[in-house]
Specification:
Blueprint lengths: L2 H26 L7 H35 L3 H20 L8 H20 L3 H8 L5 H11 L4 H24 L6 H8 L2 H17 L19
Protein name: Sulfite exporter TauE/SafE family protein
Keywords: Membrane, Transmembrane, Transmembrane helix
Organism: Mucilaginibacter roseus
Length: 228
């Protein structure tokens, strides 16, 4: 499975969780008085706004990842990332939740304030979607872990682009017909998510071990040369 396919499926499975978390926010965005086609366009624009923010985050994390690859410690990072993802999956399977730290809440408060302002001022749907993309989300963090392992800034941004594309189908469908995704249906779909995370974590660990297994654990790559 390629990095882009992994990114897409992280977004697709993650959007099941996001519908419950961001669904009320999507419904809070004003689309008043528009025709059906314009309404659909506005909601699609909102989804693209989120994806733009994901790509920007990918560029930022890619700059960090580039330094990691130059230091030739990417295999260790892949193993650590995989272990963290496995622990996160196990915490969901055993119904254990980790409380957010006060520091994280304070860091994200400016984005929350901007989003509230955008909703009150009826800002453009693209802008509101971009602000939504910056809000704390476990699956965005999970995607960023994958992006930092891709090796280049461009690949990292592409990873987050495919992650955003993965979130689009279910999020867009939920925005158009929120009644379809009932609480009961979301709970049933959420059962699958931890198992997907578990498989993903194992894949990251195997990739970091460089066992020379095609597609699962390719051989270690030499660090790129640094131009003097």
């Amino acid at each position: 499975m390629s990095d882009w396919q992994v990114a897409f499926f992280i977004g697709l499975f993650g959007s099941v969780h996001c519908i419950g978390m961001c669904g009320p926010l999507m419904l809070a965005v004003s689309f008043g008085g528009r025709s059906a086609w314009l309404l659909a366009f506005d909601k699609l624009l909102y989804q693209f706004g989120r994806t733009i923010s994901y790509v920007v985050l990918g560029l930022i994390i890619g700059l960090i990842g580039k330094q990691i690859w130059l230091a030739n410690i990417q295999n260790g990072l892949s193993i650590v990332s995989g272990v963290l993802i496995i622990l996160a999956a196990l915490s969901r399977l055993i119904k254990h939740s980790f409380k957010s730290t006060g520091i994280a809440v304070k860091l994200m408060q400016p984005f929350n304030n901007m989003l509230v302002w955008a909703l009150k001022k009826r800002a453009g749907h693209l802008l509101t979607g971009m602000l939504n993309g910056l809000l704390p989300c476990g699956f965005v963090y999970l995607a960023l872990v994958g992006a930092v392992n891709t090796g280049t800034v461009l690949n990292s941004a592409s990873f987050m682009l495919w992650f955003g594309m993965g979130t689009l189908p279910l999020m867009f469908a939920a925005a158009l017909g929120s009644g379809f995704f009932t609480v009961s249906l979301r709970r049933k779909l959420n059962i699958v998510v931890p198992y997907f995370m578990l498989c993903l974590g194992v894949w990251f660990v195997l990739r970091g071990l460089s066992l020379n297994v095609p597609y699962l654990s390719p051989p270690a790559m030499d660090a790129p040369a640094i131009c003097k």
